[in-house]
Amino acid sequence: MKKVAETYAIINIADLSNIDFSQVGETNENTIRKSVDESQFVIKYNSVPSFITDGTITPIETLSHSAALTLMSTEAWSEPIEIE
Fold it and tell me: pTM for the complete prediction?
């Protein structure tokens, strides 16, 4: 695996079964962050996982930490909090 700064990858949910969780910061499919509509999820890594380098999975987008935080705060990734 190629070493890089911490990177976040947005991936289609259909590719979830192709994730080797030993190569990413999440431990299993129960610990990933999914979009509100559950069509996408995010993983983070410091070394590019082999399932990306070998073309098994092509991320929709790769982001820096700050860009990932910005994306996670959008309506597509965060449910609005209702105040009663």
Answer: 0.87
